[in-house]
Design brief:
Elements: E1 5-7, E2 17-19, E3 24-26, H1 36-53, E4 57-61, H2 67-74, E5 83-87, H3 89-101, E6 107-112, E7 126-132, E8 135-142, E9 145-146, H4 152-155, H5 158-165, H6 178-190, E10 196-197, H7 200-210, H8 222-229, E11 242-246, E12 249-253, H9 255-266, H10 271-297, E13 301-305, H11 312-324, E14 328-331, H12 342-352
Parallel strand pairs: 1-4, 4-5, 6-13, 8-12, 13-14
Antiparallel strand pairs: 1-2, 2-3, 6-7, 7-8, 9-10, 11-12
Helix pairs in contact: 3-12, 5-7, 7-8, 9-10, 10-11
């Protein structure tokens, strides 16, 4: 008998999914469930679906603090035998690409976004995963950096610049008081309220703040948008970075990249050139890391997903150089590349791993 699956999606850019095993229907784009009105709307819509469809399986994000996760665990689902399944955020991103393109795996998944709860309890967001029907393995990630003040870093990108580069970045950060910078540097030194993150989104934030483009964001993704806008399509320069093997995975250190940016700023190079070099470097990180993973696994298929790939310059550059290196490259096409694809990925993971 076919199972009815309800996939609740993510908390930001929420869109749930219901499937009877043959047909898939998406709920409305609900927005951020952290907004009380949005969450009430989400609950109303989902309860109607539960009442009508009586799902056997409900899938939620791995993050224990997400409103969607709490809802799944407290909404008194019927029947009582309904099975709850958590799916890791970045695994879902890559799985959504696999579903769209009919990929059975294994694939090398590159999932770049701002945040997602990792299996180690840290904040992920710069992930290279090997994904197949059995699940996923984390094959590489950006070096963990502290987020001084936690989520404050999202609206104050300058904090991540200090986290990645250190005290020598302070003179380059404009329109922030010396007192504020000293306070954040002290937080970093003592590791007070500094959760760890591997987020690619925070790296783009730090680059924009270092260039003086955005130290305080007034809307979502303001910093990376301003950074991308400066890019020159014909510029092919890039900066160095380090990729090191750590136990069973690779770790990517972007500190050399930022040090090179600082040197170019001191030399008064055009900001457009520095911004382009940064983007080219991030694309080269994708290529070089994928090559290393491919060398270990012999996988030649790559799936790209996550909100950072809304950056067209990065997306097109990464696809081009991966394709030139004879990788088969896939990305979300029928569905958004951001968190609106999470429920689709959750559904695919549940179906492909045979947990249902």
């Amino acid at each position: 008998m076919d199972k009815t699956i309800l996939a609740l999606g993510s908390d930001i850019k929420n869109r749930f999914l219901i499937s009877d095993g043959q047909n898939i229907s998406f709920g409305p784009d609900t927005g951020d469930l952290g907004d009380a009105n949005n969450y009430e709307f989400f609950k109303t819509e989902v309860y109607q679906v539960i009442k009508r469809s009586k799902p056997n399986i409900v899938i939620h994000d791995l993050h224990p603090g997400y409103f969607s996760t709490r809802f799944a665990k407290t909404c008194n689902l019927q029947p009582a035998t309904c099975n709850l399944q958590p799916v890791q955020h970045h695994h879902a991103h890559i799985a959504s690409v696999m579903f769209e393109h009919g990929l059975k795996g294994p694939v090398i998944g590159v999932s770049f976004d701002g945040t997602g709860y990792g299996t180690d309890g840290n904040i992920w967001g710069g992930e290279f995963l090997v994904v197949d029907k059995a699940g996923f393995k984390r094959a590489a990630h950006f070096t963990y950096r502290e987020m001084p003040g936690g989520e404050k870093c999202i609206k104050e990108p300058w904090r991540m610049a200090l986290s990645i580069i250190g005290e020598k970045a302070a003179p380059f950060i404009k329109r922030v008081s010396k007192k504020e910078k000293r306070s954040v540097l002290e937080m970093l030194k003592k590791r007070i309220n500094c959760p760890l993150t591997s987020s690619a989104g925070r790296i783009f934030d730090a680059a924009a703040a270092t260039l003086g483009l955005c130290v305080r964001a007034s809307f979502e993704a303001e910093a990376p948008l301003k950074l991308e806008k400066l890019c020159e399509r014909s510029e092919l320069g890039s900066y160095k970075f380090n990729i090191k093997k750590q136990k069973n995975s690779y770790e990517i250190d972007v500190r050399p990249l930022f040090n090179a940016m600082l040197r170019d700023i001191k030399k008064k190079k055009k900001k457009s050139i520095i911004a382009t070099n940064f983007h080219n470097s991030m694309a080269n990180i994708i290529l070089d890391t994928v090559k290393k993973i491919s060398g270990d696994t012999n996988i030649k298929t790559v799936a790209l997903s996550g909100g950072v790939f809304q950056n067209k310059f990065l997306k097109m550059r990464a696809i081009k150089i991966l394709s030139l290196s004879e990788f088969r490259v896939f990305i979300n096409e029928k569905n958004p590349v951001n968190d609106l694809n999470i429920s689709l990925g959750q559904y695919y993971v549940s179906c492909s791993t045979g947990k249902n």
